[in-house]
Amino acid sequence: MRRSSLLHRLNPLTKLIAITPILFFVTMTTDPWTPLLLVVVNAAAAMLVGGASPAKYARKSLPMLIIGVGVAAAYPFLVSSRVTEGSPILLSFGGVDVHEAGVVYGAAAALRLLAIFSLTFVFVATTELSDFIQAMMQQWKVSSRFGYGVLAVCRFVPDLQKELRTIQAAHRVRGMLGDRRIGGLAERVRRYMLPLLAAAIRRAERTAHAMDARGFGSSKPRTFYRPFRFAARDWFGLAVYWLIIAVAVATIYEMDYMGDLSFFKLYG
Q1: DSSP structure string for 231-265
Q2: Which residues cross the membrane (predicted)?
């Protein structure tokens, strides 16, 4: 993904503010059309102004698509009878009736998952974690102890992955391949955990000393290499995005395709 896209240049907090109310809204929809439209809008945003290629977006969304298909297939058999009461029966076998309402609500549930994915993809794929944390510390006054601690933890993950590969290579050199069957998994985990834990403790201790030496978390005002603020393009991008979403939702509403907004309706 290109790092120079329009969405990459927006303030990370602007993107968070943009998608948060839409996320809450999509969880309350009960029709399939509203989340479907949100999927289309956000996928278009990711590809047109976020720099994501269609192939990359399709590859990233494939796991959620598989989960959505599973939810849509299982939902008609799990939905409350109160919801399907009076709905036409589409299929009946083995004493189990598949109602039209169950199929519709199953499709709605699957599309809600895809809509949530498309919203979060726009944010995650165009936002650097370090930029997001620093913007929160500068603009939302999040504690620097917490912010830099989160950054340190996130950077531990690739370090520990490298450490694990080193440990595995050392075991192979010594002929300690272990049992490759499922039963040998516990033994392999036991042999890897102790050196990994020791490496993690050493890295955590060194990081803590380094942060303390540099005054991270002190009460003195900090300076930042890259200052973050809300610029005119952030407000413009936020307004355009919300306007597009509002027009799309209003169109669905005027066409009488929008269902009731209730998170608890389908599960009561």
Answers
A1: -HHHHHHHHHHHHHHHHHHHHHHHTT------SST
A2: 12-30, 36-55, 62-83, 103-127, 235-253
- 165, two tokens: 């590969």
The mean of the pLDDT values for the chain is 84
Residue 83 CB neighbour total at 10 angstroms: 18
Tokens matching residue 224: 């930042």
pLDDT band at 219 (very low <50, low <70, confident <90, very high): low
Tell me which DSSP letter residue 11 carries: -
d(CA 241, CA 243) in angstroms, rounded, equals 5
**What band does 16 get if pLDDT is binned at 50, 70 and 90?**
very high
Angle at Cα 129 formed by Cα 137 and Cα 61, nearest 5°? 140
Q: Which backbone phi and psi does 89 adopt, to 5 degrees?
A: -90, 120
Mean of pLDDT values over 262-266 = 55
Residue 112's Cβ-side half-sphere holds a number of Cα atoms within 13 Å equal to 19
The two tokens of residue 219 are 């009460």
Residues 6+ apart with CB under 8 A from 71: 106, 109, 110, 113
The yes-or-no verdict on residue 3 having pLDDT over 70 is: no
DSSP state of 184: G
**pLDDT at site 22:** 95
Predicted TM-score (pTM) of this structure: 0.79
- What the block records as the tokens of 153 is 């933890």
